Amino acid sequence: MMNRKESNPESARGPRRRPLGRRRFLAQAGVGAAGLALGRRAIARPALERVLRRDGAPKSLVLVQLGGGNDGLSTIVPHGDDVLYRMRDTTVHAKKDLLRIDDYRAFNPQLKKLRAQFDAGRLAIIEGCGYPEAIRSHFKSLEVWHTARPTGRASGDGWIGRLVAEAMGEDPAADSVVHLGGRAPYSVYSSEHPPVALASPTGYRWFGDDDVYAMGGNAICEHEPAADARHIGRDRALQALRTTLDDATESSRKVRHAAASYRTGVEYPKSRLGASLRDVAALIEGGVGTRVYSVQMGGFDTHTNQLIAHNRLMATVDAALGAFFEDLSGRESAKDVVVAVYSEFGRRVQENGSKGHDHGKAAPMFVWGQKVKGGLHGEHPSMENLDAGDVTFTTDFRSVYATFIDKLFGATPGPVLGGDYPLLDLI
Q1: In this structure, what are the phi and psi dihedrals at residue 148, rounded to the nearest 5 degrees?
Q2: pTM of the model
Q3: So where are the chain's domains?
Q4: What pLDDT score does 250 carry?
Q5: Residue 204's pLDDT is what?
Q6: What is the DSSP string of 316-375?
Q7: Distance CA 152, CA 31 (A)
Q8: CB-side exposure of 276: number of CA atoms within 13 Å?
Q9: Disulfide: which of 281, 295, 366, 418 matches 276 by Cβ 3.0-4.6 Å?
Q10: Does the pLDDT value for residue 42 go beyond 60?
Q11: Which class would CATH give 59-204+270-417?
């Protein structure tokens, strides 16, 4: 069992992006302003536009993180394997209650809406997702998942941050990556292109532009045009800064308008995950142009009394994702959206003495979309050949990432992931 201080992976220490207030924005922009002294480039990005609009290529990725280590064996249940029932007593589901997929696998009884999407061919289950020499620490394992590298944060930006640099060039839109609800995960961290992180998009507003405009006006009035080259350069840099602020302010307006004007006939649950996913649907329908959305839900560290707690978690996930999938399925704007659901690890096979399960290794991922090839992908881990009490991974999660990078963004996976991984036949 891990130290209880690790029970909330969202509280992990490390680089965090504070909101870009006036002082911090100016400090950062001041460094870049020198490089913009000759004026901001009017960038035409035909190559990027071709990537965004490739024939049949999905354009947006929604990442749903289940923080705490979701028990994969109680999510997609290998009911056809007697080992499960020998090693679990109070945490196992009765076979009659399960939502059977085949003679071996079944959905958790609470996942009725996800099962319906699976039956409709829009939900893929990628079995046995993990990585070599898996780490049972929440923080360290999340670092591996968030950076796609075994060294975690020491390797630099998150994998989405690297993806932005690789796929979107030096001038991505201010809202290319949006995290909704609480602190953003390290996966979207970028030293060059920070993501937008919002508790709620209706509260998203850019602050500080009036101060910068005032500063720019004073700077221009204080010096004659012929004063010296430094002042000329500064004026041009300030003009470039104004243009950047215009972009950010416009992004703010778009996001708030999309959220405030959204109307849907689908009733979302009153959970935090449900609210975040409704906001994602609003931004997708509003045409904001975000390429990567991130949301998360915690509470999956089920060391004690797992059956009741995990069933409650599964019901929350099913209600929120079910509403989101139903909402997107009826919208033309969502035909090019892919959703990925993951957790940092699974739980151990053997039930512990507290009617729960300790940190494990491999677990399934869900991938949903109207252009996703639904069904079972990969290989279910062996329940006979365990690794120190854990099922071993059969699919490297970076193959799932590589598939998204290639199929959704038209980028080369290697530079983003730090290595080559086989693509999956998902999209």
Answers
A1: 65, 25
A2: 0.80
A3: 59-204+270-417
A4: 63
A5: 65
A6: HHHHHHHHHHHHHHT-GGGTTEEEEEE-S--B-SS--TTSS--B-S-EEEEEEETTS--E
A7: 27
A8: 25
A9: 295
A10: no
A11: alpha beta
